[in-house]
Amino acid sequence: MSALKLPRTLRLDPSDAFVFTQAAEPGEWAVTGSFLFWDRDPASLTGKERVAFRSGFLGVASFGFSTLVVVSEASAAERDGAVATLADHLQTRLGAPDRAVALAAAREEIDFAASLCDLPVGTVVAMHRTETDGQIAEAFRTLHQKPGGEDRLHAGARAFRFVETDADEPEERADLIGLARGRTP
C-alpha cells in the first residue's frame, strides 16, 4: 500500500502576506479552494481576491491562501483531522446545512488534494486557475530546485525556477513593493 500524501502550504518568502487578504500559515494542509469561487463572477474580482482566484491554494486550518504547496507524507489521523477542520469551516463560514454534508464535501476536497500528490515527497506545486464560459479550470505546475552553479550571477540566490510554461498564457506580474505600501493591483 502506498503512503498517504497531501499538499502542505509552503512559504519561501513573505509575498503571500502581501498578495492575499489572508495568507495561510506555512505547513498547513491545503486544498485547491476553488469551491470558494463557484458562485462568484471571476471577472468581478479585483485586487487580492483576484490573486487568490488565480493562484491561491486554501490552507485548511487558517482558511488563508498560499501560492505554493509541497507534497508531504500524512498519516491517516492527519488526513482525518484535515477533513474535520475543513468541515468545521464549511459549516461555520460557508453555511453547510449539517455536519454530514460538511464532512462529505470536506472529504471530497481532501481526496482531490491527495490526487494531486502523485509526485515525489518534497515536490513543490503551483496552480493557475481560470474561468472560461462559466467553468473553473485549474492547471498545476511543479517547480524544481535549481542545480548549483547554473546561474553564476545569482548562484544560490534563487531556490526554484519554472521549468515549463504555456506560451499562450498572459504573463502575470506582481508589484510586491506597491502591495507592501498598501497599493492594490
Structure report:
- The structure is a single chain.
- With 185 residues, this protein is an alpha+beta fold.
- It has one domain.
- The protein is 29% helix and 23% strand.
- The protein has helices at residues 15-19, 47-55, 76-92, 99-115, 176-180, and strands at 5-10, 30-31, 57-59, 65-66, 68-73, 124-132, 135-145, 160-162.
- The protein has a five-stranded antiparallel beta sheet with strand order 1-5-6-7-8. The chain has a three-stranded antiparallel beta sheet with strand order 2-3-4.
- A hairpin with a 2-residue loop joins strand 6 (124-132) and strand 7.
- Helix 3 (76-92) packs across helix 4 (99-115).
- The longest helix is centred in the middle third of the chain and has 17 residues, at 76-92.
- The chain is globular, with a radius of gyration of 17 Å.
- The relative contact order is 0.18.
- The model is unreliable at 151-157 and 159-163 (pLDDT under 50).
- InterPro entries: DUF6505.
- Pfam families: DUF6505.
